Amino acid sequence: MNDIAAGGVVYTVEGGALRLLFIDDRFGYLSLPKGHPEPGESLEQAALREIEEETGIRGRIVAPLGEVAYAFQSGDGQTVHKTVHYYLIEKTGGTLRVQEEEIAGVRWIPADGALPAQEAAGYPNNRPILVRALQALRREIARRIDHTLLKPEATKDDILRLVEDAVRYGFAAVCVQPWWVPLVADRLRGTGIRPCAVVGFPLGGTLPEAKAYEAYQAVRAGAEEIDVVVNLGALKSGDEDGVRRDLEAVIEAAKPQAAVKVILETALLTEEEKRRAAEWAVAAGADFVKTSTGFGPGGATVEDVRLLRSVVGDRAGVKASGGIRTLSAALALLEAGADRLGTSSGPAIVRELPAPEDAASDEKAVP
Fold first, then answer.
1. pLDDT, tens digit, for every residue of 321-345?
2. Which of 261, 287, 290, 304 does the annotation list as catalytic?
3. What is the pTM of this model?
4. Which fold has domain 2-140?
5. Which is more confident, 362 or 329?
6. Active site includes 211?
7. 144-323 adopts what CATH topology?
8. Rounded to 10 degrees, what is the CA torsion of 187, 193, 197, 198?
9. Is 24 considered catalytic here?
10. d(Cα 101, Cα 138) in Å, to the nearest integer?
11. Which end of the chain has fewer CB atoms surrounding its CB within 10 Å, N or C?
12. Which of 227, 246, 287, 304 does the annotation list as catalytic?
């Protein structure tokens, strides 16, 4: 007799921490939510429905994690060959509640405690799925990072190491001074990682024509993203026309080949100026608003990210940059609404995520 089920490893970021969802099943084991597809349901639909029914949590599928196959004896003595298809799932809503007739309990476990909890009380053949989930989460975090080196004294060898790290970890982009764009673009070709150049950096007071030319040449050299510093003096003077003309010149020079992120240097702005800057950047056609250069008096804060997200909504992305050195800081900013993180500490951040390289385990049959 063959049996098919679907379920998932659900994750959430809360309080600057990454947590995974587990159930305590009726046999006394720690397990993952799963169940049988209903007529006409896909495996993906079944996984999401079963998770919500068992735990109260709604989610969206991020990636498949593979399957677990095992055999057991049913109550009438038949041998059942069961295959469970698992997915990595991001929590999108809901609150924890227990489907009492099916399971004994449900709980969030911190990511760094997930494997120890699995080893202590889980089914052995769930281990590979959990390992793959942790590896996939590391990749998901990495894909939100712009690996950055903007120090004026950076050498060619420094830039090459930056590119090597970006390829190794799968970061979203490599962000450098325009001089290094040809080298970076050449080394990243075919990897899917985007070369990014800063423009008008770090002060923002360059003439619009100069910024536009800098952006145009960076794009010609291979940049697929441009991070441009807003004209802070014009912004703080309330000169909307000047700020927008400045940004529109860069955006016209860069698009459609490159996305444009506007650096606001939020540590130098009042709350009203931050709101105004974000609105003007979006009106000019920016793809992202970005908190900081990393050279100003302060970096990214959770409060600023929340504010920028509340202003731009889904009209633009939000990039947090400046002073992001730990996983907890990165997760707090992502939780606050950041789509991207600009940091030179990307490798250290992703290495904080537990992600064993092997997905091996024994094939002990479990119910």
1. 999 999 999 999 999 999 999 999 9
2. 290
3. 0.91
4. Nucleoside Triphosphate Pyrophosphohydrolase (3.90.79)
5. 329
6. no
7. TIM Barrel (3.20.20)
8. -140
9. no
10. 35
11. N
12. 227
